[in-house]
Fold this protein.
Amino acid sequence: MDPNAGDVTVQMSLRDDELETRIGPLSPALLDELEREADGGELRVRRVLDSTVDDVHVDGEWVRLTKRVSRSG
């Protein structure tokens, strides 16, 4: 068994109005789970992400999560 099979990289970028997080490479099973819509009241990974960030985008083996922030001034 490959000892690195479960390793992922997390890259975070902070811009003026958003935090972008890229995570990958993800396993095919997790990518399938991210693409699956929740039926009814099912709690799935995608539903949790959709409720906590503004955008979830799957790009190949990576997922990009974007959270927009507003600065009070």
Observations:
- The two ends are 53 Å apart (CA to CA).
- The first helix runs from residue 28 to 35.
- Residues 18 and 68 are 4 Å apart (CA to CA).
- The chain has one domain: 9-68.
